[in-house]
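pinned: reference chain
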Amino acid sequence: MKHRYAGTDKWYKGNTHIHTTLSDGGKSPGEAVALYRTAGYDFIAITDHWHAFHLDQDLGEIVSSSRDMLVLPGIEIDGKDELGHYYHVVALGDFEQMELSENLDSSIARLVGQNAYLILAHPYWSGNRMEDVRRYPFHALEIYNHVAAWLNGKSLALPYWDDTLRHRDDLSGIASDDAHLLPQHPGWNGGWIMVQADGLSQASILQALRAGTFYATTGPSFHRIHTEGNRITCKTTPIKQAWLVGEGYFGTRAVAAEGQLLSDFSFTIEPGSQLARSSYVRLEIEDEQGKRAWTNPL
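pinned: its structure tokens
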């Protein structure tokens, strides 16, 4: 196991996929910041369609409203690869402005050349194939996209994640809002990440994202995730059940007794067991409301 969460116990709440009036969103950047602050967010990323957010150019009223919240610059691009398969890609980082292009390969190459943190957005909603996840150098994929749940129910992309983890265990899973903050797309604060970082700065958060020291959630929280040898111990908000998930049908679970809830639990991966032979393991928890959270591969 990677002992991924062995660092600081400080967690920062963030959302990596938000649209504003800079593209097709219903609120200005400043209004979006103010809204997300009310839900306890420490940072958000502004990722408008084909608009690279620049703090010095796009601040506006955000100057006074963002003093206690980190705003990460980003962009969302879309297009088809040479085989005609459609992608939406969120990129975090500082970028030059990009013009709308139908050449997805060149657009992604430009972002990679600027040290982008690349996220494959809502692959189930986009109709991506499993192998599409491995076509480009994505750092993460959206395993939960909140607006997709509203639009057509295609919010979860866990099969894409698990399939890819069999080939490479460094792909992180992100939950995001993809918020547009419009009457026809009203959802927000439905999926987010909790990042374990040394501090609340663009450099620290992006470094933590690259290291995968975060978990994705639609509600429940991990307070502590500790790995030692072949044993994993966790402290969480009250939950009904937890799973240790491996490849294929490999896995095990911990379930609260009837009428009770769990907040402390552990798993031991026995030598020679199916989970010990799995190319990856990850944790998943579910609370009383059916909301779930997912760690990155341990």
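why pinned: The two ends are 5 Å apart (CA to CA). The first helix runs from residue 29 to 37.
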